[in-house]
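Protocol step 4 of 6: structure prediction from sequence.
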Amino acid sequence: MAKNQTAQKNKRVRNQSEQENKELRDDQGRAIKKKALLIDISLPQKTTDDEMQDKKYELESLVKTYGDFEIETTWIKKSETDKKLFLRQGILDDLIIYCRENEVTMLILGNILKPRQIWDLTELLREEDIEVWDRVDLILNIFSQHAQSSEAKLQIQLAKIRHMGPRIFGMGGNELSRQSNTRGKGETNTEIMKRHLRQEEKNIEKKLEKVRKTKCLHRQKRKRSQKETVALVGYTNAGKSRTMNALTKKGVDVKDALFQTLDTRLGLMFLPKSFREIFIADTIGFIANLPPNLIAAFQSTLSESINADVLLHVVDVSDDRFEEKIEVVDDILEKLGISDKKQFLLFNKIDNIAEKTEEEIVENNINFEDFLKSINFNNITLTRDSSDEDRKNVKKIKKLKNIFNKKYLLKKYESRTPVFISADKKMNLDDIRDTLEIIIPQNHNFNTYSCTNE
């Protein structure tokens, strides 16, 4: 009986934030958005002003993707962190005053907190009716919104248990201790909660194992059909799904938002020179600062990339930070043990870079300084006080430099066979086909494997 009651308490705690969001409705039943304060803490000696602005943009993009919050403001702070509460006392005092004055009820941190830190911070701000999410909480809630298949939903449940578990233990222990007024009873009930979560985790893993075996059997069938699989990988919102649509007739839903794809999608692509078909697999995008346990929770979805014949790394070349994002994806591929797989870089969104085409700049050998003068741009050094117009101009300059340095990119990534395309405008798609004809020759030797080895 006690075990069932504890399990019910545990379930209520895990779903608390979702339930609260659903209860916020106006008289006409429309959802009322909570006011959210976004904050990111970075060490002064490790982060430049430009990097801080990039972090601000990505955090706001994640929150806008979730969509249920009105962003009150974003604080980007260079500060040391506090071991207990993560936020130092001075920042906390300012934060509480600001939230009171502006009716903020949600604090979203762009950082990943330790379980005890977020628990202590949540307890402190509970008196102010302020809910707290860290970066992983935000990402998992975005995942929950976009999950469609039972596989994706199971993986999210698993990730939430692994991330939320320690907080649930603390909450259960504290609440039950207060109810019983005896330390021993609280500890006993906390252990019951731990056992319940461990059992729930095992049950989810068993269900996911069945999904993995089914997907493996499908891969074996594809191998027998003598069709190679090329997996699209890349940073979230790099244009993988749009690339999938450009190369196949799959017609997947495409939106300009983060984490639109959580499930694996397969389509057929025709290679005209060798008159054969190959499979293209589109799967979940990556993002910086993902903890290993979150990546591990999505092992089932990522299995298509892990077992693919070739990786096609899609890059948004119009993004000012695209080289950093290449490194983020490379690091995750290494953690997955597939960094040595055959792969090539697909520099996407070349149509977004600038109005002047790459041919005009590269082929005509235009001097870059003269080019800047011709379009009335100046080299501007950004500071915290820089105007929005200055920031826009610098962003345009950086995009133009990306095109101007195409030769540099070809040289730097020569071993990874870079291809420059626009999936949206269907530009240079034949270059992808030609590259795949070379990377996967027609007499390709198909490897066989057993599902028991996965």
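Step 5 (inspection) to follow. The longest helix spans residues 183-224.
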